[in-house]
Amino acid sequence: MLREIDWTGAFIALCFAIFVVFWIVAAFSTKRTVQSNYWWRAAMLIVAALTVVLVRLNRGQLGWLRTLLWRRTLTTGLIADAVALAGLLVMLWARVVLAGNWSGGVVLKQDHELVTRGPYRYVRHPIYSGLLLLLLAGAIWAGGVRGFVFWGFAAVLLWTKALAEEKLLTQHFGAGYRNYKARVKALVPYVL
């Protein structure tokens, strides 16, 4: 008996795999780090710990997390596919434009430049915007409260990291970054 293939789940997983492989390969072409800010990692560890606790509690005390908001249908699958693809494309575009200035941490690179072209014309943190879209696609496809709670934790984590990056960039670029920040929203064009 053939098992039905979850095409949307497979597509979202493929988008995540492309993201991970691209990031690993592209990490070899970054500039040398000259300044780091590590305080945001403590916040990341706290959010990660809360996520683990949430998953563990989900088995008993927090049964409401298993609440299904909607069933998987062709429509929810197509919406999730479109959101996942949009998220992946935004992340890839942003990573290519950022080039050697990229880092997984909150750092300044040698000869760091303030990138305001490509997707950075529309949002200050397009990689985070794209990642949040990709995670949102998974939550849409899963259709349950748990996926959206996890998405919320991820949003808090990325916002915390974005604030740390902006502090470092403001210190380094001064008025140039403050002007950019005044013109361009952080994650959602013209909104947030």
Pick out its properties.
globular, 192 residues, mainly alpha, 6 helices
Low-pLDDT windows of residues: none
Total strand segments: 2
Estimated radius of gyration: 18 Å
What amount of the residues lies in strands?
A: under 5%
Strand order of the largest sheet: 1-2
Succession of helices and strands: HEHHEHHH
Molecular shape = globular
Helix fraction?
55-70%
Distance, first to last CA: 49 Å
Largest sheet: 2 strands, antiparallel
Which whole number gives the mean pLDDT? Answer: 86
Number of helices: 6
Q: Given the helix and strand composition, which structural class is it?
A: mainly alpha
Summary?
With 192 residues, this protein is mainly alpha-helical.
Task: Summarize the topology.
Layout: H1 7-26, E1 33-37, H2 39-57, H3 74-98, E2 106-109, H4 126-142, H5 145-173, H6 175-183
Antiparallel strand pairs: 1-2
How would you characterize this protein structure?
- The radius of gyration is 18 Å and the shape is globular.
- Helix 1 runs parallel beside helix 3, helix 1 (7-26) packs antiparallel against helix 4 and helix 4 (126-142) runs antiparallel to helix 5 (145-173).
- The chain has 192 residues and is mainly α.
- The model has no long low-confidence stretch (mean pLDDT 86).
- The N and C termini lie far apart (49 Å).
- Helix content is 62%, strand content 5%.
- The protein is built from six helices and two strands; from the N terminus they run αβααβααα.
